Amino acid sequence: MSFMYKHFLCILIAIAALCLTSCETPYAETEVAEQNANTDEQQSEGNVTFTINNFEMMPFDKYFANSRASVNARDFCSRLTYAVYTDGIRVKNVNQLMTDKDFGSASMQLEPGTYTLVVIGYSGVGNATTTNIEKITFSGSHISDTFWACEEFTVGSTHTTISIDMKRIVACVRFDMKDEKIPTDLQLFKFYYVGGSSTLNGLTGFGSVESNQREELTLSKDSVLEIYTIPHYQKDYLDITMTALDVNGIAIQEKRFPKVEVQVNHISNYTGTFFTNEPDSIVDGSEIDVKGDNEWDRDTIRFEVKSQTL
Question: How far is CA 243 from the centre of its chain?
Fold first, then answer.
């Protein structure tokens, strides 16, 4: 074998080795990247897990009663927000939709320490804004049937699991319309009401500002309309203006209901006619309507509603 041939053979072997090295390097990097991705996925599961145990449908003064209702989160809300704070600063936030497979349970990775957890169950077109724990707002200032929990917890060196009990924090005003004739050109009802709040204090579960609330609702088949507010205290008072609009947005009828008493976890029920011209009619508050076992409190609210045609 000639010297030139041996020299040429050595060069070929060197080139082949270089090619093999070049082909192996991306494979090794890909394998490492996948391992890192798996590690990140495992870390994203977190060392703290929050699980909603039940929805407590009782007023605050009956919180320690023995009778409690346990339900699935999807039965009462379409959105859940979990917010974790330390020294008043939000450090973690998770939003869930009822279509999420893990709806009702969330995990976070947190450093050892003491934290405050706020969980809100509600329905709407957008997520709640939880940056300020004392001024939590909802998309479009829309208030639906809303549930809340707030508790302090400590994270140590081992995995922490926290069971959450949710409590209803809103009051409902229901209008049960008994009109024999409804205008054929009726499109919707517009509500404007003051005295309650559409902003939540996440620490207390009560309203934190004086809100001017607005809702637009269409009449249901059973002629019932419902509006919600977050009271500033266990009991509060609303001043409600209710306007019926036709298909062109023109007012057909408008009435004012001043000083309507509302209470957390209670329905204040108005039963009567709307499309009449009776001035200054007074209606006694009816007994609280119970939707299901312990869903709304069974107590009776007694109040007078002055219905004024404007």
Answer: 27
Closest CA to 47 of 111, 109, 117, 112: 109
User: Distance between CA 35 and CA 30 in Å, rounded?
Assistant: 9
Output the pTM of the full model.
Answer: 0.73
Q: Using CA of residue 281, residue 287, residue 291, residue 295, what is the dihedral sign?
A: positive
Which two structure tokens, joined as six digits, stand for 174?
Answer: 């229901």
Question: Two tokens at 198?
Answer: 């559409």
Assign 115 to helix, strand or coil.
Answer: strand
pLDDT in tens, 58-91: 443 333 333 344 457 888 899 999 999 999 999 9
Q: Are 287 and 300 in contact (CB under 8 A)?
A: yes
DSSP per-residue letters across 203-258: TTSSB-S--EEEEEEPPPTT-EEEEEE--SSSEEEEEEEEEEEETTS-EEEEEEEE
Nearest to 134 by CA among 96, 85, 172: 85
